[in-house]
């Protein structure tokens, strides 16, 4: 394998994952929270593919494909929720959507 | 399949089919049809029993034991129990008695119960009972015997409490069930012990291995079996339920509490005689209990006013004779007396049923009298039954009872002589209470109330044909049924039964006839005493103290109340107040309140802020990573 | 020489990945945020190619960057100005905790990688030319992972139905004004 070793990809994946996690934890706009989630999922995908390369086993790639499908589903639901919030004239702020408070 | 066995299976299953048919048909069939289904299936059972009997008769001596297994319904390791029946001389006799007398009594019920609200239920129960009883006597192993044993208890419970609107009937049913459950429990414990020690519940293997067991084990097993027998057969000290059981319909008293179920204890003693012979003290205990019961019940019968209760105590007394016989090893006579007793006691109950029916439910003999003129045919039947009970030759009771007393004499020793004396006292008492009842009901001036006189005037006869024919048949059987055993001449019945259980005593012909003379003389003395008392208008027991003691049935009910019921009730109240309340309920309250409180505290963590949740998850994951790395 | 070229491409892709990732979480306008994510996905596709995942790289660009992100952009356009999300912090404790958690995760991953670097990650497996090709992955999907494949399709179907239901205005009493607005 030419170029950088699998470890470098994994470090990259960890950094992107951390960035995404920060976005989820810090931002209040549901849209950006959703985008940050995508970032985290993609970081995980990168790690999966890197491990697949390391092991020479395609199962990791298959799993990454499944993650993509789940991510698509998640986007569909998430965007649906955001549209529903907007249609009901509710504020687009995750901190204010706290009706399920105990 | 073996031909003798086919009849036995038909005999067993026909009543079950009848019970199921009546239950499933429900209100789609008329009450009369239900009655006919029940009667005819029971007679089909009788035909099956007769077939089995004849085919068994045709076989060679010594080859008259057939075991038939339908299927193995319980297998655990080496331990197997099959749904199997045993057809041998003893069980065929019992099958004939149960299905024959049972068929007559069910037929009789069609007249007796006519017009009752729930006739179909009654006939379904009756068929269930006949099936259970046949299962009991045909069972091919101990477990199936226990199944039948429990089922007859259930049927008895259901039928005693048949008139469930009456509080006394329900209480009596409960009492019968509880007392019988005690016997069932000791019986079941005996079986557990048998499985534990011998690993089998089949009759032959158990009887084979019983000699190899330690005497303690055998004694315990025999004691457990005896407990079951004593409870089922209403012997002292578990007798208290039988008089109360008279709350049930009279045909039920005739079938279950006179002719068949209560004699199951005797059957058990004979069927499992090898076990008892291995534990001789317990066998003698059975004889002693029988002797005590026959005297005590005879005494109590002297002072009872209820016509059915007098007959019930007489039943206890007669079963006492059977226990005595089984206890000294006179198995043939025990079963013989069981059969003749089934004839004449069912006859007595059914005649009493005609009287009660005629008087619209009146059972108090103080309000009867002079019925001879009104019910002449029933009078003859009752008279035959009474004389058979007292043991006047050549009626049925004479041959069987005197055989038992002679066997006691033949046993000899202190035990034999004591039993002999008790049995003779019993013969005297039998004459007294039986004739007291007879005179009070049939002789003397009529004591009918206006209402009854009115009925009489309307021309009501002695009941429908369905009641008269069974009474007639039983009258004939009570007259000639005893001729199967005539000492010195022939004893086919005794020999037949002894193929299943070899008797331990054989009275000589001289002993037989000597005993007969004494017993009949004593019976006649009893008759004479009863007649004199009746003519002078006084009671047989004149001492007021003795009267009171006997009327309270020797205070056994009160004793049980004080010894068992009151402490148990007090304990229950104490537990309710001091344990249930403060410990159980309080702890439940505490658990509930604690959970509620913890939930309230925890719900604060549910901030509803998405981002806090995310941060929590992130921290949790970082902690988990550390854990995983550390564990690796 | 080829090795240097690969390193160069890797550095470019990694730089794009990190920069666009930072942009996704930091810009205040979701429209730019979404555009940054598209760039992020493109850089990832390059990295996938370097890891011999040709099919996945193509799927990433076509499905993800192509259609999912277009949906995103449509929603952002629909929301218009309401979608703007300027940085409005919340309690400072929360921000600190978030930072600490993210850094803790990162450090842990690096430490774990460091522990494994020497022995496990040094020499990747030898692979054939077909590794990561559509044929190879398709065969796996229809043999070893058939059940997972079918379940994934059901998940997508459920999500599609859910999206439709969420997007439909409920027709109940008292909500007629919403209808008129729409």
Mass-distribution shape of chain B: globular
Radius of gyration of chain B: 29 Å
What order do the SSEs of chain A take from the amino end to the carboxyl end, as H and E? HHH
Structural class of chain B: mainly alpha
Number of domains of chain A: 1
Q: Work out the helix count of chain B.
A: 25
Q: Fill in the CATH topology of chain A.
A: Helix Hairpins
Q: Helix fraction of chain B?
A: over 70%
Explain what this protein looks like in three dimensions.
The complex is a heterotrimer of chains A (102), B (632) and C (182). With 102 residues, chain A is mainly alpha-helical. Chain A has one domain: Helix Hairpins. Chain A is 75% helix and 0% strand. Chain A contains three helices and no strands. The longest helix of chain A is centred in the last third of the chain and has 29 residues, at 59-87. Chain A is elongated. Chain A starts with 5 loop residues before the first helix and ends in a 15-residue tail after the last helix. Chain B has 25 helices and two strands. Chain B is globular, with a radius of gyration of 29 Å. With 182 residues, chain C is mainly alpha-helical. Chain C folds into three domains: 1-88, Four Helix Bundle (Hemerythrin (Met), subunit A) (Up-down Bundle), CATH 1.20.120.1200; 91-121; 130-182, no CATH class. In chain C, 76% of the residues lie in helices and 0% in strands. Chain C has seven helices and no strands. Chain C has helices at 2-26, 30-50, 54-79, 92-120, 134-142, 146-167, 176-181. Chain C is globular, with a radius of gyration of 22 Å. Chain C starts with a helix and ends with a helix. The chains are: A mainly alpha (102), B mainly alpha (632), C mainly alpha (182). Chains A and C meet through helix 1, helix 2 and helix 3 of A and helix 1, helix 2, helix 3, helix 4 and helix 5 of C.
List keywords for this structure.
heterotrimer, A: mainly alpha, 75% helix, elongated, B: 632 residues, mainly alpha, two-stranded antiparallel ribbon
């Amino acid at each position: 394998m030419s170029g950088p070793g699998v470890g470098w990809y994994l470090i990259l994946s960890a950094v992107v994952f951390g960035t995404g996690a920060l976005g989820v934890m810090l931002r209040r706009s549901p849209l950006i929270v959703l985008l940050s989630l995508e970032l985290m999922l993609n970081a995980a995908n990168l790690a999966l593919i890197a491990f697949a390369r390391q092991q020479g086993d395609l199962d990791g790639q298959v799993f990454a494909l499944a993650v993509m499908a789940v991510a698509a589903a998640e986007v569909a639901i998430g965007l649906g929720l955001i549209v529903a919030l907007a249609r009901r004239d509710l504020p687009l702020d995750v901190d204010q959507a706290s009706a399920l408070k105990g | 399949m073996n031909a003798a066995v086919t009849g036995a299976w038909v005999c067993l299953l026909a009543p079950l089919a009848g019970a199921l048919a009546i239950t499933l048909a429900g209100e789609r069939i008329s009450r009369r049809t239900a009655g006919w289904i029940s009667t005819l299936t029971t007679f089909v059972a009788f035909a099956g029993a007769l077939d089995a009997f004849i085919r068994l008769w045709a076989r060679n001596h010594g080859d008259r034991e057939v075991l038939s297994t339908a299927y193995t319904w319980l297998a655990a390791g080496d331990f197997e129990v099959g749904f199997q029946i045993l057809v041998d001389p003893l069980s065929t006799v019992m099958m004939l008695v149960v299905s024959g007398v049972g068929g007559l009594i069910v037929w009789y019920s069609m007249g007796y119960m006519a017009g009752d609200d729930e006739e179909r239920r009654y006939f379904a129960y009756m068929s269930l009972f006949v099936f259970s009883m046949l299962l009991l006597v045909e069972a091919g192993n101990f477990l199936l015997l226990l199944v039948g044993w429990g089922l007859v208890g259930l049927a008895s419970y259901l039928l005693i409490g048949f008139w469930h609107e009456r509080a006394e009937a329900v209480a009596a049913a409960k009492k019968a069930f509880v007392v019988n459950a005690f016997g069932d429990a000791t019986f079941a414990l005996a079986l557990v012990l048998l499985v534990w020690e011998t690993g089998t519940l089949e009759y032959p293997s158990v009887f084979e291995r019983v000699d190899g067991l330690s005497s303690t084990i055998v004694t315990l097993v025999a004691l457990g079996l005896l407990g079951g027998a004593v409870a089922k057969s209403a012997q002292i000290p578990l007798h208290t339920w039988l008089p109360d059981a008279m709350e049930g319909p009279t045909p039920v008293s005739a079938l279950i509490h006179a002719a068949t179920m209560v004699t199951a204890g005797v059957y058990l003693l004979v069927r499992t005689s090898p076990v008892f012979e291995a534990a001789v003290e317990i066998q003698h205990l059975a004889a002693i209990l029988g002797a005590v019961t026959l005297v005590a019940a005879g005494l109590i019968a002297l002072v009872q006013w209820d016509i059915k209760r007098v007959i019930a105590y007489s039943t206890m007394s007669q079963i006492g004779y059977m226990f005595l016989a089984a206890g000294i090893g006179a198995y043939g006579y025990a079963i013989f007396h069981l059969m003749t007793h089934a004839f004449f006691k069912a006859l007595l109950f059914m005649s009493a049923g005609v009287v009660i029916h005629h008087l619209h439910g009146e059972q108090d003999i103080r309000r009867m009298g002079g019925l001879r003129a009104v019910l002449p045919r029933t009078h003859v039947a009752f008279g035959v039954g009474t004389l058979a009970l007292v043991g006047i030759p050549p009626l049925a009771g004479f041959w069987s009872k005197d055989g038992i007393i002679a066997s006691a004499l033949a046993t000899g020793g202190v035990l034999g002589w004591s039993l002999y004396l008790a049995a003779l006292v019993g013969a005297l008492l039998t004459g007294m209470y039986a004739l007291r009842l007879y005179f009070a009901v049939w002789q003397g001036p009529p004591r009918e109330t206006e209402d009854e006189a009115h009925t009489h005037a309307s021309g009501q006869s002695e009941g429908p044909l369905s009641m008269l024919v069974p009474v007639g048949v039983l009258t004939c059987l009570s007259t000639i049924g005893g001729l199967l055993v005539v000492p010195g001449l022939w004893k086919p019945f005794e020999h037949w039964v002894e193929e299943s259980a070899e008797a331990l005593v054989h009275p000589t012909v001289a002993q037989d006839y000597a005993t007969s003379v004494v017993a009949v003389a004593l019976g006649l003395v009893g008759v004479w005493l009863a007649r004199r008392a009746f003519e002078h208008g006084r009671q047989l027991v004149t001492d007021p103290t003795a009267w009171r003691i006997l009327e309270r049935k020797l205070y056994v009910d009160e004793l049980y109340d004080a010894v068992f019921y009151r402490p148990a009730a007090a304990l229950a109240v104490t537990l309710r107040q001091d344990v249930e309340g403060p410990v159980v309920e309080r702890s439940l309250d505490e658990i509930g309140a604690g959970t509620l409180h913890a939930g309230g505290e925890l719900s604060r963590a549910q901030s509803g802020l998405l981002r806090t949740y995310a941060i929590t998850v992130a921290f949790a994951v970082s902690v988990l990573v550390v854990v995983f790395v550390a564990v690796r | 020489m080829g090795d240097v070229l690969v390193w160069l491409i890797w550095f470019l892709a990694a730089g794009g990945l990190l920069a666009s990732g930072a942009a996704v979480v930091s810009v205040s306008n979701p429209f730019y945020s979404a555009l940054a994510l598209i760039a992020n996905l493109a850089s990832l596709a390059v990295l996938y190619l370097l890891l011999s995942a040709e099919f996945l790289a193509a799927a990433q660009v076509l499905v993800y960057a192509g259609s999912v992100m277009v949906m995103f952009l449509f929603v952002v356009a629909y929301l218009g100005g309401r979608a703007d999300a300027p940085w409005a912090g919340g309690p400072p404790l929360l921000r600190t905790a978030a930072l600490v958690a993210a850094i803790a995760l990162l450090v842990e991953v690096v430490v774990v990688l460091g522990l494994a670097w020497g022995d496990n990650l040094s020499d990747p497996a030898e692979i054939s030319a077909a590794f990561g090709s559509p044929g190879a992955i398709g065969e796996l999907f229809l043999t070893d992972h058939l059940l997972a494949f079918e379940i994934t399709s059901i998940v997508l179907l459920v999500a599609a139905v859910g999206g439709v239901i969420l997007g439909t205005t409920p027709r109940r009493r008292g909500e007629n004004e919403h209808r008129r607005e729409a």
